[in-house]
Amino acid sequence: MVMMASSMRPSAPSSNPRLLRLLVVSDAWHPQVNGVVRTLEWLMREAINHGIELYLLTPDQFSSISAPTYPEIRLSLALPGTVAKRIEAFHPDAIHIATEGPLGILARLYCLRRNKRFTTCYHTRFPEYIAARVPIPLSLSYAALRRFHNAAQATLVSTPALCDELAARGFSKLRIWQRGIDLNLFRSGERQNLDLPGPISLYVGRVAVEKNIEAFLEADIQGTKIVVGDGPSKADLSRRFPGVRFTGVLSGKQLADIYASADVFVFPSRTDTFGLVMLEALAAGTPVAALPVTGPQQVLGDSGCGIMNEDLAQAAREALLIPRQKCRDFAAGFGIEESARCFFEQVTATLIDNA
Q: The pTM is what?
């Protein structure tokens, strides 16, 4: 069976010898709504198809506090001994540490003290995110992350470009994990009459300073701008840009429908390592306008499904000319099934030398 961290606790070892027991440790979990959380949800759903019994160790299982300026992010107050007991109660065959937060740090400490192999994943450019809030040099932040990840048997990254960038910063044992999305969900979106002046320009994601949303909101793009999501910058931005529609968080069919109802998806971030939301928009048939930076370059490439330009308004105007079916066809190559297969193979490969 697949265990959900939000409702179940570790059990005794499975009596089914075909299932490999995988523990995933993540500081990112509900009520956060982001690519890491959605990816973990999809992996949980896919695990059984790959002979995996998956258990999540997340902040909702411990006392926690809100992150400064970001109440959706819960920081676990767990003690090392408590985390160790939770891990040992599950009897994992493999351990994957998805984030570099408090739980990730304690799980890494557990593995190092007991000589347990583990894998990690580099999801987020935390050095740039931190630098956007406080004056900490990137070199110091990257040194801390390099030390964290280089102790792992492998660190999974989303694109070859990110792999090269991290390798140049001294990260080792990097492996590519191609991301994927729930194609069935986002292809099911129905184009709605939103009764708003068109064209409709859409942003989906965290409403936070590191996402560079102001570049979208300030761009001279005709029609109506819609922002889907929540975060610490929402109140300020909604006050400063009263003409923009802020919907809050949407999920499931509602999210798929808003993707399908937009005429262009605008991705203003300069720091995302990938950008699953671009694939979600493309699966719904909506072309992308983005800045010419690593995330969009790796997702869009030469697909012709998006326009990358330092002038977001110009990119949005040109993207309107892209056929929607072309976007759907391109996104079809990024299903969650193949992404899950790649993930489970990479993680369980750490067991080979343990046999």
A: 0.85
